[in-house]
Specification:
mainly beta; Immunoglobulin-like; eight-stranded mixed β-sheet; 2 helices; globular; DUF4382; DUF4382 domain-containing protein
Length: about 280
């Protein structure tokens, strides 16, 4: 009986200690970070059916500290990015324990890449040594007891390069957003009315908030909108960083048929902004 009493007393002591002594507020010494990955429906060369990318490292850098390696869902992690469009994601890093504090960068290590054509041909993709690890500046805070999820948009439209010889190179272009805060821009296009089967939507960061394309602006992403069975064809631009200004252009047959500036004040955290007040383009 005495041994039993000591065991129970020890367990109770551990429990009360973990709960702040039983009468106070619980304290937490760490938080968690998880990472998901996605892609827009990219503009790709004709005949590309699948793009497989293999990732072998995910790390974050603490402010004033060092790199912290995160355990991935599986290592290495291979995915067909063309299966992760239209807002779909896959979990690259399940919730990983991190010390509270500010983190300023995320690093993605890309081991290899391969294209599969619509004829089933497998084509290698060259990755330069300097592009095997891509560091992306992005500030986020981890709090004790808190959970953060980041979404990495692996932008194939800008990452995949066709060389003059017809071979492919991968130069990863990443966009990062706090998943819970991501903004979305929506629209619809009467594609058939222009006599084509698809449109291209180009999103540019309006760096000077002027509402016009200027030399300092950079393309954020672009996506293909294939004509639906019945127009207007809807589309969505997912995983946008909120609180930033963008210019959205719609091109059909290589001609810009519509352009609209979206001010940063119209895109707070979690916002869904309809182009043209919800009317078809």
């Amino acid at each position: 009986m005495k041994k039993c009493f000591i065991f129970v007393a020890l367990i109770c002591g551990i429990f009360l200690s973990a709960c702040g002594g039983g009468g106070g507020t619980a304290t937490f010494s760490s938080g968690t970070l998880s990472v998901e990955i996605t892609d827009a429906k990219p503009v790709l060369p004709t005949g590309v059916a699948q793009v497989f990318v293999t990732i072998d490292e995910v790390s974050v850098h603490s402010s004033g500290g060092q790199w912290v390696s995160l355990s991935m869902a599986q290592t290495p992690f291979t995915m067909d990015l063309l299966q992760l469009t239209s807002g779909r994601t896959t979990q690259l890093v399940p919730p990983a324990t991190l010390a509270p504090g500010k983190y300023t960068q995320l690093r993605l290590g890309v081991q290899s890449a391969m294209i599969v054509t619509d004829m089933g041909q497998q084509l290698p993709v060259t990755i330069a040594s300097g592009d095997l690890k891509t560091d992306k500046n992005f500030n986020f805070d981890v709090t004790g007891g808190g959970a953060v999820t980041l979404t990495v948009d692996f932008d194939l439209s800008q990452s995949l390069v066709v060389t003059g010889s017809g071979s492919y190179k991968l130069k990863p272009v990443l966009h990062l957003v706090n998943t819970a805060e991501a903004a979305t821009i929506t629209g619809s296009i009467n594609v058939a009315a222009y006599g084509f089967d698809q449109a291209v939507v180009i999103v540019t960061q309006d760096s000077d908030n002027s509402g016009n394309l200027t030399p300092g602006d950079e393309e954020y992403t672009r996506l293909v909108v294939a004509k639906a069975q019945s127009d207007p064809t809807p589309f969505s631009i997912y995983w946008l960083v909120p609180g930033q200004s963008y210019i959205v252009e719609v091109q059909i047959g290589g001609i810009t048929v519509y352009s609209q500036a979206v001010a940063k004040t119209a895109l707070p955290a979690g916002a869904v902004y309809p182009l043209k007040n919800g009317n078809p383009i």
